[in-house]
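Reviewers of the previous submission asked for a worked example of the structure-prediction workflow described in the proposal, so we include one complete record here. The input consisted solely of the amino acid sequence. No template or homolog information was supplied to the procedure at any stage.
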Amino acid sequence: MTISRLMVVDDDAEMRQMLSQYLRTNGFFVLTAASEQDILNHLDAGRIDLVLLDVMLGTENGVDICNRLRSEQDVPIILVSALSADHHRMAGYEVGADDYIAKPFNPSLLLARVKAVLRRGRRSASLSYRRNTSVYQFGGWRYDGKKDTISAPDGFQVTLSKRETNLLKVLLANPHIPLTREEIADALNVARDPAAALESSESRAIDVLVGRLRSKIEKNPKEPDFLRTERGVGYVFAVDVVVSDG
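From that input alone, the workflow returned the following structure tokens.
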């Protein structure tokens, strides 16, 4: 399971705070930005799944920024603006925006539109997922998504079980993001009611699986460098992950 990483771009600090807090309470990881340079810095630093971009950013124009991003980025972009006339919307779509939302808006409507754009993106990416050729590198380790192999810093291949490999994939997709045991269980397709709390046996199974993966990728599993316990939450993959084409 990949937790969607959103970027809220607005030069109004109060609006940034309101939107980011609302989206976080609805299960998203949210970064904020106030300028084009902030956007570029976040995009360079790691994966962004969707950008909520305000059209009027002080001296900068969100439509122009969207146009420039589209020349180099495939990240979905939703433009947000107080300008709601048809020609304003068309200007946004013409530069490659995936959606256009007029202010003021109902937060529930915004949430629905965000989820819809993310779903479209996932559907279009489904074929590339099935023929995954990405290579993930972290702390000297290398996971080859095409060959489904993982190599230690010394070059030796380490054998992982299917469950250990699936857990590693969840972690590689969510570096530096604390994950609850429930989120990990859902990602590993543990059969249960999503609204129910994780049973003690399931929770223990996740802990055991984490322990097994630690024993294979950590120098000292009792004091892990990568897969750390996040007190009060669950676990976090506390290492940068570099993704490249195989």
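The longest helix spans residues 107-124. We consider this example representative of the routine output the project will generate in years two and three.
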